[in-house]
Amino acid sequence: MTRIPSKTEILDWIADHPGQTSKRDIAKAFGIKGADRIDLKRVLKELEDEGHLEKRRKTYRDPDRLPPVTVLQVLAPNADGDLFAKPLEWHGEGAEPRVLFIARKAEPALGEGDRILARLQEVRGEDHQYEARLIRKIGANPARVLGIFRKGAEGGRIVPIDKGADKEWMVAPDATHGAKDGELVQAEQAGPRGRMGLPRARVVERLGDPGAPRAVSLIAIHQHGIPDAFPDDAVAEADRAKPAGLGDREDLRDLPLVTIDPPDARDRDDAVLAMPDDDPKNAGGHILWVAIADVAHYVRPGSALDREARKRGNSTYFPDRVVPMLPDRLSGDLCSLHEGVPRACIAVRMVIDAQGNKISHRFTRGLMASAGALAYAEVQDARDGRPNDKTAALMEDVIAPLYAAYGALTKARAARQPLDLDLPERRIELSEDGHVTSVKFRDRLDAHRLIEEFMVLANVAAAEELTRLRRPLIFRVHEEPSPEKLDALREVAAASGFTLAKGQVLQTRHLNDLLDQAMGTEFSELINLSTLRSMTQAYYTPEHFGHFGLALRSYAHFTSPIRRYADLIVHRALITAHGWGKDGLSPQEIDELEATAEHISQTERRSMEAERDTTDRYLAAYLSERVGNEFTGRISGIARFGVFVKLDETGADGLIPIRELGNEYFHHDREAQTLMGADTGLEIGIGQRVTVRLSEAVPVTGGLTLELLSIDDKALPRSGPRKRGKPPRRAPARAKAKAAKTRRKVIRKRK
Q1: Which pick of 58, 266, 556, 715 has the fewest CB atoms within 10 Å?
Q2: Same domain, 336 and 454
Q3: Nearest CA to 691 among 646, 650, 649, 633?
Q4: Of 720, 462, 704, residue with least CA distance to 573
Q5: Coil, strand, or helix at residue 61?
Q6: What whole-number distance in Å separates Cα of residue 210 and Cα of residue 217?
Q7: Residues 44 and 80 both lie in one domain
Q8: Closest C-alpha to 213, from 654, 617, 625, 694
Q9: Contact of 439 with 510, CB cutoff 8 Å
Q10: pLDDT at 740
């Protein structure tokens, strides 16, 4: 008879192998076979009854875990001077884990009884189970300032870069954090407010040269007026919040919902689950669950948190930091669907048929516990036959059904034909000191598309539910392109040898036909970019206009209430519509829906501009060390003052000033988007391949200046002294012959 492991051995195994927690995995690890598995099952059941384990479907998990962000209470220092802390949110039945606080330089001193919001990291082989890093003290919300440090005889001063700041800040000699004269620094208030004289500050972060990469996003935040400091009353409100209990909520904790996010995600606000539908009337169908963090439970209408969230409108994301819509106590803790931690949610259960069409849906307000915090790449690897310890245990019951449901949703997408643009997304990678190490294009995995399709379907269900119940809400709408922009797109398509149908009601399938024509040709990126530029910008409104790009009649944002105020409005509308509580949409909010929609549309554009400016500055800083190098690219825009080029390697946009094109005068044709030389007849248009030399890169502005070396692999024709004159006229027959020749060349390349 095989020896059955002790309870301690089993618990140690599960702790060391969190991804291998099924009974089969445990039996295999201890060499238990045949009838001995009955005894193993008995031991596991005893551990479950004793509260050491909890069973979810076919796996056993240790319930005694802390969330990665949580509130701690600092204990008295021990004999060695170490500070330990007590977790205030503990769901396990065993002894509370020991948490060691790790202090960093320039952080305020902590004492016994202080409550702090901290980020935790599990450790093994020590006399404590977690190490904590301070995010901030609970109840403390010191004012922050970004400015230039000026060294003085005693300490120094900080000159804020914010144009609206009218005071400098004094810095004591022991609070400079080693800052040097002229450095950009971030500091926080030191001492009480309202004292006579200049306010005092403590330097908490040195950012170096104001033109250096780490300063880029902070400068953009201030330039665009993005609020990055929470008011005291909003922070205090968040600090008072406690985790939601079950109450009248539907208990969803037995559902193996999982979150799938980037590996560095801190706010996990959506979880998914799929399973086959066993209803014989829906053969081949699926049941989909999408659970979203119940932010409305914590952010009540008219509260300080609500006022600040509406003011911000959304979170803003930069390569090196995030400006969140909600304080970290909510965004990183209570509203984040951490693995194994009970969290309040609003969920929708959807039934789809084998073709991916939604048959029905049901919304509920519940309490869930994530069965796994997964990353896109590891989910895709598991699907492709390379599971790791964590995903192996979830393959059969979670990951495989998700992909099966995704397969059905792709059929519905193909029938609906939303706009299918193929534009690579850049990812700027930074070193620890904030310098750009590389610029890569993000991989587009099926795992990404899976989550997108689930979220789109949940957003559709929310819009349809509220429309059915005749409840006011904010829609996400996208109108079709204007006739002028469509004509411009047709010009670009024709110049590349393609056609865009005219004289009929425009549908996304017509644009997809154009994209299909260009696919695989040298004009593919140009046509995708030109199609994107022809689109109007999506926005928020209480009016029901539909979403052209997604080819949907009803669409609302429901799935990201941590980072978008529009989603919070939709959540409140659902709460009111179903009578789930008093934290739904208030009458005042209903009266102000139009103004709110316009405001958050503007804050979204503000964030997009700040993010774009920051990316441009990072790219300029990255390329500043390569001035004089040659690059290949494609002409992406034509203006009277010059030519815009998108570089192949980084996707950065640079300008060739008109003066760099030669001595001749160039005539600008705005409709055809071309420049034509008066002497040589050189025609420069969108989509042409070019080789350029980088002549200047200015990180402060993000500007790149280029010198044109060749067009379509041909050297530039020489011209005499610059003079104004009419461009040479091209005979109609000759022009037609050239166009026909171009089309034949394109067709041959495509074949």
Answers
A1: 715
A2: yes
A3: 633
A4: 462
A5: strand
A6: 11
A7: no
A8: 617
A9: no
A10: 47
CA dihedral 653, 654, 657, 662 (to 10 degrees): -110
- Quote the CA–CA distance of 38 and 27 in Å, as a whole number: 10
The pTM (predicted TM-score) of the whole model is 0.76
| pLDDT value for 296 | 97
* Residue 497 in domain: yes
Residue 161 per-residue DSSP state:
-
Range of 644's domain?
Answer: 626-715
> What letters, b where the CB count within 10 A reaches 16 and e where it falls short, cover 59-93?
bbbbbbbbbbbbbbebbeeeeeeebbbebeeeebe
Q: Which residues contact 419 (CB under 8 A, 6 or more apart)?
A: 508, 511, 512, 531, 535, 548, 549, 550, 551
- Report the chain (751 residues): mean pLDDT per 10 consecutive residues: 77 65 76 78 76 53 70 84 84 77 75 84 81 82 81 85 70 85 83 69 78 75 85 92 92 96 87 96 97 97 96 94 93 93 96 97 97 95 94 95 97 95 82 82 90 98 97 96 88 85 85 92 83 92 95 96 98 97 94 96 94 88 92 90 91 91 86 85 86 89 89 79 49 44 45 43
Cα distance between residue 627 and residue 524, in whole Å: 29
Are residues 339 and 410 both part of a single domain? yes
8 A C-beta contact, residue 202 and residue 173: no
* Rounded Cα–Cα distance for residues 56 and 611 (Å): 41
For the record, the structure tokens of 535 come out as 């689109």
